[in-house]
Write a structure and sequence with these properties.
The complex is a heterodimer of chains A (305) and B (438). Chain A has helices at 13-20, 26-52, 69-75, 78-109, 116-128, 131-141, 148-155, 167-194, 199-207, 212-223, 225-240, 244-249, 261-270, 274-304, and strands spanning 55-56, 64-65. By secondary structure, chain A is an all-alpha fold. Chain A has a two-stranded antiparallel sheet with strand order 1-2. The longest helix of chain A is centred in the N-terminal third of the chain and has 32 residues, at 78-109. The radius of gyration of chain A is 26 Å and the shape is flat. Chain B folds into two domains: 11-148 and 309-364, Periplasmic binding protein-like II (D-Maltodextrin-Binding Protein, domain 2), CATH 3.40.190.10; 150-307 and 383-435, D-Maltodextrin-Binding Protein, domain 2, CATH 3.40.190.10. Chain B is 41% helix and 14% strand. Chain B has 19 helices and 13 strands. Chain B has helices spanning 11-19, 21-25, 30-36, 53-68, 84-90, 102-108, 116-119, 128-133, 156-161, 172-185, 198-211, 228-242, 254-261, 274-281, 321-333, 335-342, 379-386, 407-415, 421-435, and strands spanning 43-50, 72-79, 97-101, 135-136, 139-140, 142-147, 150-155, 192-195, 246-249, 267-271, 289-292, 310-313, 356-357. A six-stranded mixed sheet of chain B has the order 2-1-3-12-6-13. In chain B, strands 10-7-11 form a three-stranded antiparallel sheet. In chain B, helix 4 (53-68) runs antiparallel to helix 16 and helix 18 (407-415) packs antiparallel against helix 19 (421-435). The chains are: A mainly alpha (305), B alpha/beta (438). The A-B interface holds A 58-61, 73, 77, 79, 136, 139-140, 143-147, 165-167, 251-256, 259, 264, 267-268, 270-274 and B 82, 85, 88-89, 107-108, 110-111, 196-199, 248-249, 253-255, 258-259, 262, 264, 398-399, 401-402, 404-405, 408-410, 412-413, 416, 418, 431, 434-436, 438.
Chain lengths: 305, 438
């Protein structure tokens, strides 16, 4: 088989196919491994899960087709909406502040600074520490009776707070863990983006009399919008899929107040309620696609500006 | 051992053997029948055991199994128990045998081999409760590993200092009265442990229900939590909280350990495996704890119940179920195997002190040294005598693992004073019916 373009006339179906493909099979052979792997491990599981979402199946026997019942069940289900609400609150608590803080710190770290390397490493360390280890630290710090935080607050006369045992505080406490752990990653992305901004832009702004505040909001932030969009999308996905944090910290409690969308999905699949779990995952996917599309639209809108 | 030439035990051989029902009835086990037929079991089995000490203990006992069955190669693998269900559903790399917690067996019972016939010779030798929870639709699906009787762990030193005799704590009301007395003398105390993790709340409530011969579902699979037995439990929780004697904490978590070591928690109604926390995690109070039977809910009521427990299952999709059965038959249904798995070994020089076997003939062998964590109390004799009181009328629903999201969450609401005991049960029943039993 020739992998080179040919000028031969299309005498047979194979030749006609080759001509239709642009005269050569080679490019298609080169990209074929990706598509084979994607079809086997990406598309097929997705299609299978989609099919499952219309069935009642606990992993044994023949799945029973039940139409849209799983979707209607979930859309009318308090447990499902509670998990979405919890994830939305966590998003509000984590993503905006974390993104702004990451831009600010990255901006600081991109300047000549004493111990700059030390700070860069220090901010990244929490991201590299296993979540389970951090969760244990959190449990010790935020224990309502023996934790260091309440001990410190007690020293200034503040009553003990049930950080992980009350509905009001469990979400913020878990958000703080995610915030602390993942901020290093956000800073890393912003730092890389800031370092790509040409210095002469800042020099020109300085010549025009711009101060540091103006440079930050008129140059740095606008030129980071692609990175900001990227990080916000990644962080949004992370919050919606968040599973390990509630699993190790609260098991979704108290009273399901930290039951995130990802953890709720896990609870269905753990119980081998696979049809409902599959439907839940597709509803989440729809939410993620909509949110991502909105953010991408905002980004492209800025580009047009 | 047979001197016959080695011959592989095929499925056909197995069927032949099983067909010899009358002859088999004279023999105590499948293994004996195989050997009597001169068929030497040969092959390789893949056995999954929970990563950690269980894997190590069983691994150390495999040489003893191979002395009896030298031609069965055991490919022993450590695994996370959550891996079993997806493996069985996918049907790929299915092990020949695997460990599973009893409460999760119902979820995968359809994937498991019916081993009723093989188990029949041993049923009378097993703790009744374990046979019940391994039975689904009349079919035995698991070989019991351990039984975990619940008991009242208490601080002997604190009770003595405060003039409280443990023998006077007969009922749960007595327990609260004793806790109130302790609280009055020591205001910093919250003497009774009150579990706060949703999953463990469900396990704990299930145990307290089992003690009253009740369970989440009845024999017909109907939800049975709106009953007097469950209301007793919720009222006990509320009464302890209202009396300000309940310590809200989570088993093995830092706050719970501190509460034990700092003389805040005095009573811990829990399964025998609380001794893990006493032995391995407590520093100050290790050796000061003792065990007594649980308080009773009514006169002549059971003084114990089961909390947790595990078994081994043989997946229907495994390659060598017969050989896997021989493995478990030896390990869990002979005193020799039980001794190797539970008794003193490299991993536990004093024997396992957190569970006891479910195979009653092994009760005559004192498999654990009296634990120092309990001041040298004879835990093995205490537990093996108590275990026969566990009510066996117990059924795990297939959706047990998701109960934490409803019953567990509502008990948390009760603990927070948001709802009443009656509301816990009515609300949980409604949510379970609409979410888990639809």
């Amino acid at each position: 088989m020739s992998l080179k373009p040919t000028n031969a006339t299309a005498s047979g179906p194979i030749d006609r196919l080759r001509l239709w493909l642009g005269g050569s099979y080679a490019p298609y052979l080169y990209i074929a491994p990706f598509f084979i792997v994607f079809l086997a491990f990406g598309f097929y599981p997705l299609a299978y899960a989609f099919q499952l979402s219309f069935t009642s199946w606990r992993g044994a026997g023949i799945p029973e087709f039940i139409g849209l019942e799983n979707y209607t069940f979930l859309l009318q289900n308090d447990f499902f909406w509670n998990s979405i609400f919890n994830s939305a609150v966590l998003w509000v608590l984590i993503v905006p502040v974390q993104t702004l803080m990451a831009i600010f710190i990255a901006s600081m770290l991109s300047r000549p600074l004493w111990f700059r390397s030390f700070f860069r490493v220090t901010f990244l360390i929490p991201y590299l520490v296993p979540l389970v280890a951090i969760a244990q630290v959190w449990l010790i710090l935020f224990d309502s009776d023996f934790g260091a935080i309440n001990t410190l607050l007690g020293a200034i006369g503040i009553e003990p707070i049930g950080w992980l045992t009350t509905g009001a505080w469990a979400k913020p406490t878990m958000a703080l863990l995610v915030f602390w752990k993942n901020s290093g990653f956000a800073i890393l992305i912003m730092l890389a983006a800031i370092q790509n901004i040409p210095l002469d832009v800042y020099e020109a702004a300085a010549l025009d009399g711009a101060n540091g505040f103006q440079k930050f909001f008129r140059i740095t932030v606008p030129l980071l919008r692609r990175s900001i969009s990227f990080y916000v999308i990644i962080a949004t996905l992370g919050v919606l899929q968040m599973y390990a944090e509630p699993y190790v910290l609260t098991e979704g409690g108290p009273y399901n107040s930290t039951m995130t969308a990802g953890y709720a999905l896990y609870r269905y699949t753990q119980n081998l309620d696979l049809g409902t779990g599959a439907a839940n995952s597709f509803l989440l996917m729809i939410i993620v696609v909509i949110l991502s599309a909105v953010m991408l639209k905002m980004m492209s809108g800025n580009d047009e500006d | 051992m047979s001197s016959q030439p080695l011959k592989k035990l095929s499925r056909r051989d197995m069927l032949k053997l099983l067909g010899i029902g009358a002859a088999g009835a004279m023999m105590p086990s499948l293994g004996s029948r195989i050997l009597a037929q001169g068929i030497e079991p040969v092959g390789e089995i893949t056995i999954w055991d929970r990563a950690g000490d269980l894997f190590q203990v069983i691994d150390a006992a495999i040489p003893a199994f191979n002395e009896k069955y030298p031609d069965i190669i055991v490919n022993h693998q450590a695994f996370e128990t959550s891996e079993l269900a997806p493996t069985l559903v996918s049907g790929v790399n299915v092990p020949d045998g695997a460990f599973i917690e009893d409460e999760f067996q119902g979820t995968i019972s359809q994937h498991l081999l019916d081993i009723t016939e093989w188990m029949q010779p041993y049923v009378d030798d097993l703790v009744n409760y374990k046979v019940a929870v391994n039975t689904y639709d009349g079919q035995i699906k698991g070989i019991p590993y351990d039984v975990d009787p619940a008991m009242l762990f208490y601080r002997a030193d604190i009770l003595e200092e405060n003039g409280i005799n443990i023998d006077d704590i007969v009922t749960y009301d007595d327990l609260i009265d004793a806790a109130v007395k302790l609280k009055e003398a020591n205001p910093e105390m919250y003497p009774i442990h009150m579990e706060t993790t949703p999953g463990l709340i469900v396990l704990w409530v299930s145990m307290l229900a089992n003690q009253q011969d009740a369970s989440i579902i009845d024999a017909n699979g109907e939800l049975s939590i709106e009953t007097d037995e469950f209301l007793n439990i919720m009222n006990f929780i509320k009464k302890a909280i209202d009396a300000d004697v309940a310590n809200m904490s989570s088993f093995v978590q830092p706050g719970d350990i501190a509460a034990c070591d700092q003389d805040i928690q005095v009573f811990y109604p829990w399964a025998i495996w609380f001794n893990y926390q006493v032995d391995a995690l407590l520093n100050e109070s290790r050796g000061k704890w003792r065990v007594a039977p649980l308080p009773v809910w009514s006169e002549n009521g059971a003084r114990t119940a089961s909390m947790g427990g595990s078994s081994f299952v043989i997946p229907a999709g495994g390659a060598n179920p017969e050989l896997a059965w021989l493995f478990y038959e030896y390990m869990m249904l002979t005193v020799e195997g039980i001794s190797a798995a539970f008794g003193p070994n490299e991993i536990y020089p004093g024997g396992i002190t957190t569970v006891i076997p479910a195979y009653k003939p092994a009760f005559d062998v004192h498999l654990m040294e009296n634990p120092e964590s309990l001041g040298g109390q004879d835990l093995y004799t205490f537990a093996t005598e108590l275990v026969n009181e566990i009510p066996s009328n117990y059924y795990f629903p297939t959706w047990y693992s998701q109960l934490a999201d409803f019953l567990g969450a509502n008990v948390q609401r009760l603990q927070a004073g948001e709802i009443t005991p009656e509301e816990v049960l009515s609300r949980s029943a409604s949510e379970i019916r609409s979410n888990l039993m639809r």
